[in-house]
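Lab manual, section 2.4: Encoding a predicted structure.

Procedure: take the sequence of the chain (94 residues), apply the prediction step described in section 2.3, and record the output as structure tokens. A sample record is shown.
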Amino acid sequence: MRKMAYSVNADKIKEAADLMQGGRKLARELRVGYSTVGYWLRGEKSPTIENALKTQELTNGVVSAVDILPDYPWKLIVKSWSDWDRKNRMLEAS
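Recorded output:
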């Protein structure tokens, strides 16, 4: 079965890389190759859902997984948007 590709918001990947002091550090923290982050920055490939969520965690919610992969059907993995909003508010408050 082929994986579904979702569009990536390259500007948000750039913002995350800047927050991490560069794409190489973001790649290292995500345990992916720097070239992989380069593909994301150019919009040629999309990060996995796991990497989008990990990026959100690494940036303390400044760059959200929803921002990175806006076309992903997030409602399928989040019980309700109110739960999502509550979790994001808790993350922002910490």
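Check your result against the sample. Helices lie at 10-19, 23-30, 34-41, 49-58, 65-68, 81-93.
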